[in-house]
Amino acid sequence: MQVKVDNIEDPMATIGQKIDETISQVQEKLQSVSSSVESSIPNVKKITKEALYSTSYYLAYGTLYAAMSTIKFFSGDNPVSQGFREGASAARSATSRSPVKKAPQKQPVSKPRGKAASSTKQKAVKNVPQVK
């Protein structure tokens, strides 16, 4: 006896259709992501350029402003710059008057000749401490 069933679908065909639908959805998403990445690249370049410019500008400004302020402060005829000049002059004259101490130099050791040379050599070897 055979029973005829018309309403049952093939389960493998249903799985195949779902896989095809998923693949097409993934491809669509990948295309939209790639187009958004391509459109954002110029923005990233612009932001990077602006960041580099701002960093360089403020670094140069801060460095030069500090240097120019220091030069202006010490170059005028004010008590601070006058004190620095006179202190530097006094230090120069004090160092030029004091003698510079040199490190003691070692005296060259003269080597004895003849029999005395061999006995001196043996004595020197005997006095060397042994490393254990």
Describe this entry's structure for a reader.
The chain contains three helices and no strands. With 132 residues, it is mainly α. The protein has a domain at 11-93. The longest helix is centred in the first third of the chain and has 65 residues, at 11-75.
SSE run: HHH
Question: Could you list the spans in which at least 5 consecutive residues all have pLDDT below 50?
Answer: none
Helix content: over 70%
Please report which band the strand proportion falls in: under 5%, 5-15%, 15-25%, 25-35%, 35-45% or over 45%. under 5%
The mean pLDDT is 78
Rg from alpha-carbon coordinates:
46 Å
The total of beta strands comes to 0
Q: What is the tally of helical segments?
A: 3
Distance between the termini: 105 Å
Q: What structural class is derived from the secondary structure elements?
A: mainly alpha
Instruction: Note the main sheet.
Output: none
Q: State the shape.
A: elongated
Itemize the secondary structure elements and their pairings.
Elements: H1 11-75, H2 79-97, H3 115-126
Labels describing this entry:
132 residues; mainly alpha; 3 helices
In brief:
This protein is mainly α.
